[in-house]
Amino acid sequence: MEENNTTKRKFTFKVPHLPNDSRRNIILICIFLACIILSVFVGGLVQTAGFGATVEDLRNVTNRGTITLKATDKADAASYTVNGSVSSGLLYVPKNATPQTKAPAVVLTHGLYNNREMQESNAIELVRRGFVVLAIDHGSHGHNTSTTSFDGLTFVNAAKYLYNLDYVDGTRIAVSGHSMGGSSTNKSLEIDGIDTSYTATVNGTKVTYNGQTDESLKAGYHMGIISAAITQSNNVATKIGSNVRGVADVKSSVDEFFYSCTVKEAIYMPVSDLTAKEAKSATFATYYVQDGNGYRKVAEGETYKSGTKYFTYGTRAGSSYYLQSSQAVDFTGRKSADLDKWETINGGIYNKADGSLLAQPTKDATKGKGLVSVERKGAALWTEGKSLRAIYEMVGTHPMVHFSVASTAHIVDFVYNVFGTPENARFIDPVSQSWLVKEIFAAFGFLGLFGLIFPVADLLLGTPLFASLKGQPAEAPELLKKPRKHITYWLSAIATAWYGAWSLRNLNAHEKLYNSTNWSGLFKSSEGYIYSNVDKIAVWGIKCAVFALVVTIIIWIVNRAINTFMYKDDAPNYDEHPFDGLKIRSVGNVLKTPLFVTILLAVFYGIMFFIWEAFVVDFRFWTFDLRVFDMIKLPSMLKYVPFFFIYYFANALFAQNYRVKDLPEWATTIINVVFNVGALIIILWAHNSYFVNNGVSYDSANNLWFIASYPIIPCVAIATVVARRMYLRTGNAWTAGLFNAVVFTFLACANTSFSNLAWVYPIG
Question: How far apart are CA 503 and CA 590, in angstroms?
Fold first, then answer.
């Protein structure tokens, strides 16, 4: 027997040996990717109501249907074409919405300089309760490339689009918008509402036909498709058609732009003790005294009592008194002549026809508690013949209305009361909300995206191509060994920080600089441009950079003179190196640095675009939003990069200056962040505190720019961290300056309005 001596060959896979640094970077990449995945998963889970709904990104879509008007005693039933269109919208569809069980629907929109995602809290909570939701971009905002004015037509067309969907109940469609979107809400009611003054032509005969004219109906107007509306942070509608079931307003307790009113003889004002002479006069009977929990008028002939507090009617002005105003009375339909009983119940629902109170909260509605729907369990309060009215007031300011549990609860409450709980959906208490979970977990997305660039950068710097970009940070001079020994370090930091905050509080003041230098021509060309808020912020950034440069040079010269005098030959050991970050060690690095940054940007935005296209999830927290953008905007956005680069390069350059020897790196980074945003936070806190406590702003001309400053805080804070970490890797400010300039320019431009895009989409 012949023995088989064939040797069996084993196939093995050997993991290639990686340097420790590479292994560390790969592990970090995996950790940051895990943060991103967690954020996307939770975000998708929340916005789809536990995957019980779908979210679709609509771009330039249209549909068509018909509306048949009821026959009257003067006309037969007639049908008209309904043309729906959405330029840019997010369509949320719950699983209970089917052709067999049609669901009510709500159109949402945003305010000036914002986008459709700003209505995310309301969209999430409404779709969670079984309502179809369409959040749209206004013209010249977000992904809507239309240059039409904010006239409400975009709203109406979106409502028509919902009307034509076979799973939407066309008799129950509401619209709601914040701030500028509130104006569009009111305008949409005027465009779509049935106006009883119109006459129609049917079969060649002029007749009254449900209030519409044949001509207007053929043109798509006054069809009566919108059946309810909720304005957010805007004055209530005045032109409301007979087709509308109910209108509500959700307002902040103090508002920077709307609800201006004067309340006369509606508030008791304390007065000083009356003199004996005043007490004997006939006017004494016009005063009031406390009587239990209320007040009573002093009776004729009543004896004046020394030490008693007397009151009289006075006058107060401001948005915080809106519930006590005649405007609120007119809106709710009450006709009370008793001025001290004018106060509208917060969250109370009135019947416009007779001003009667149909329902009211059981607890404090300003905190989103005890809303009417909670009591009614989502049953519709509206019945045929009623037209509901309600004013909800939440504690806060104008921008808080679209980032508030209370305001979202109010909107849900009114939709419930007008439409009832959708079929095959369960009632959910309006104060039970999940949208904030998505916002919180967005932090993991931010962490992942920005954190990812550092290990990727380290891997790139480990390659032969980019190895020359590695650099060592300059040593801190001996004088900086202890913080208390270098007073100029702190003085210059305080000066630049305060200048940045103080100059930002009045961006309108930059208009002179902006116009005098004719920079407007660089932005506002025929090729399209981002609106002037970005223009002004760019100018502000340049001013801050120049100021910081001047301060740094002065401090450098002064300290060098002092060191030369004090330390003589040893002075170089104490000299600072404020411009060490300008160094680029070779001509090749001049070309490699932009390529290096481009790769980092490709990774950053590549992941962001992939996530949006695959999962329709963005990373946002209130007004700070990392969002995708349309490529048609890219030429306009790139115009801003050089101007923002001046600021972010200065930020990166001075991040390496403000350091103290022997302090841990984390402490140095925190110090830099505090000096970059601390003063701005103080300014905004002071403004809001004064406004909330007094009801009026101490600087009302700049209210818009105070609000526009909110996202600047996280932008500058993150940019400072990036600048410091990149400086430790490259030893220069160019890499971080360029990366931050592109990222935060694109962020600013993608989150605001734009104009003049006819060059992209030629008309005619």
Answer: 34
Rounded Cα gap, residues 381 and 375, in angstroms: 11
Among 71-80, 118-127, 380-389, 404-413, the minimum mean pLDDT is found in 71-80
**Residue 415 in tokens:** 């939709």
Closest to 318 in 3D by CA, of 235, 258, 394, 238: 258
What's the whole-number average pLDDT of the chain? 80
φ and ψ at 132, to 5 degrees?
Answer: -75, 135
Cα dihedral 722, 728, 734, 740, rounded to 10, equals 0
The residue written with tokens 């006309």 in the block is 75
Domain extents for the chain? 19-48+439-462, 49-260+322-431, 262-317, 474-583+632-754
Name the CATH superfamily for 49-260+322-431: Alpha/Beta hydrolase fold, catalytic domain (3.40.50.1820)
Is residue 272 a contact partner of residue 282, using CB atoms and an 8 Å limit? no
DSSP per-residue letters across 526-562: TT-EE-HHHHHHHHHHHHHHHHHHHHHHHHHHHHHHH
Q: Nearest-CA neighbor of 401 among 677, 141, 180?
A: 180
- CA 22 to centroid of chain Cα atoms: 40
Give the span between the Cα atoms of 165 and 88, in whole angstroms: 17
Q: How many residues does the chain have?
A: 764
Nearest alpha carbon to residue 314 among 331, 339, 292, 294: 339
The DSSP string of 386-434 is --EEEEEEESS-GGGGGS-HHHHHHHHHHHHHHH-SPTT-----TT---
What does the alpha-carbon distance between residue 565 and residue 567 come to, in Å, rounded to a whole number?
A: 6
Q: From its phi and psi, is residue 238 left (phi > 0), alpha (psi between -120 and 50) or beta?
A: alpha
User: Whole-angstrom Cα distance, residue 617 to residue 601?
Assistant: 19
Interval 694-720: pLDDT, tens: 777 777 767 777 777 788 888 889 999
Query: Could you tell me if 718 and 451 are in contact, meaning their C-beta atoms sit under 8 angstroms apart?
Result: no
Residue given tokens 């979970």 in the structure block: 437
Tokens found for residue 742: 């592109």
Six token digits for residue 578: 């404020």
Give the model confidence (pLDDT) of 333-352 as tens digits. Answer: 887 555 455 678 899 999 99
Q: Quote the distance between the C-alpha of residue 508 and its chain's center.
A: 21
